[in-house]
Fold this sequence. Notes:
The chain has one domain (4-203): P-loop containing nucleotide triphosphate hydrolases (Rossmann fold, 3-Layer(aba) Sandwich). The protein is built from nine helices and five strands, in the order E-H-E-H-H-H-E-H-H-E-H-H-E-H. It is 50% helix and 17% strand. The chain is globular, with a radius of gyration of 16 Å. The protein has a five-stranded parallel β-sheet.
Amino acid sequence: MANILQNFVVIEGLDGAGTTTQLNKISLALTEKNYKVHSTFEPTDRPIGKIVRDVLAKRFNTTPLTLAKLYATDREDHLYNSEDGVIYHLKNDELVISDRYFYSSLAYQSVECDYEVVKKLNAYPHPQILIFIDTPVEVCINRINKRGREKDIFEQEHFLIKVSNNYTKILSELPKEIKLIKIDGTLSVDEIYNIIIENLLKNL
Length: 204
């Protein structure tokens, strides 16, 4: 039986799928409905997460396995640190919603590292609810190009095709106890938001 963290919600998708936009919208909406909400994200803005972001932004280079280990270490801190970790907020009866979790590591780091190695590095509890915004690679690339900033190391079409294939594998292997909400990422921001809110209110 899978280890599940109740009242923990994770949003996943390719770069450009709109996970951050939806995190912000649903967190605000649930707060207005009197839920105690803690919204968060990975990589975090804590010291280890900042190192990960430096690698993504090409400020320095490292090996794919080192990056996978940095992600997993940042996640350990994200979950369990006693000041602001996911577990800390769950114990305070808050609903925790995270933009990305270890599924991102399985999808992204497994492009250049062995899948089973990455999986072993990320033997963390599953969320109660996983929201996956299923967006075609070409749509994501068009959105990324419109941002007008330098792309990070993962925001390349050939790479995201492999990431998308990894997500297909991950979702097919999810423990049955997890509630999966899979949404067509070509819908409008508001349409996606409405589907997410409807499902969260039904399942929380």
